[in-house]
Amino acid sequence: FKLPSDSVKYLGWCDIEEHDVRGNELRCPRVREGPSEEELFFRGEEHTLKKRKQVTDTEKWQKKLQENWENCAELNLSFQDLGDLYQVENFKRILQRLIRVEKLWLVDNSLTDLSAIRLPRCRELNVNKNHFTSFRQLPKIPQIQHLSLAENNITTLSGISDFRHTPLESLILKRNPCEFQERYRQLVFSSLPNLKMLDGVPKLPEDCSPPDIRFFFKMCTIL
């Protein structure tokens, strides 16, 4: 059975008539951009959309102003269910416009690589429950202070030193494979001298000692 919302399931919020809400006023927007008419035809769903009219440059500019993503300071784009390529592309288009965002939540979006994104003012970023495998797949965040990467698939600490020159104070890496690495906490704190808290635990005296390089060359001889 069709749901009452089926007739507008491919419409973006800014396509809905008779409203004056701007992008930076939304608490948890759903990033959606409908598929092409050709894709709808192959899906057998071309009847769900009204016939598209020719959009003028003025209308495009008005739509861009209405979205107003550039003025967002805090934004939650979690649980977007990005199942189609057109949704992922539109999602990244939004992220590229977040030039003033300071707090950003991107939890559980199946994200794999945001290295092309730059968030110049972001101080707090939560990307828990995604599919990142490396620190180098994260966006450029030069002002980051609090970074949460719990429940991803980061296997090594390679690339973590890229955050050495940022004001990073708190880092969460719980439930990543790298958490089970020998001398895990010592390695993280030696790479990030300014870090104050790791996985919710403050920096301890034993975390300050440099990792024993001889440890990596130890061998076990069985007689």
TrEMBL record:
InterPro entries linked to this entry: Leu-rich_rpt (IPR001611), LRR_dom_sf (IPR032675)
User: SUPFAM superfamilies given for it?
Assistant: L domain-like (SSF52058)
- Carries keyword Endoplasmic reticulum? no
Cite the entry's keywords alphabetically: Leucine-rich repeat, Repeat
Keyword Repeat assigned to the entry: answer is: yes
- Designated name of the protein: Protein tilB
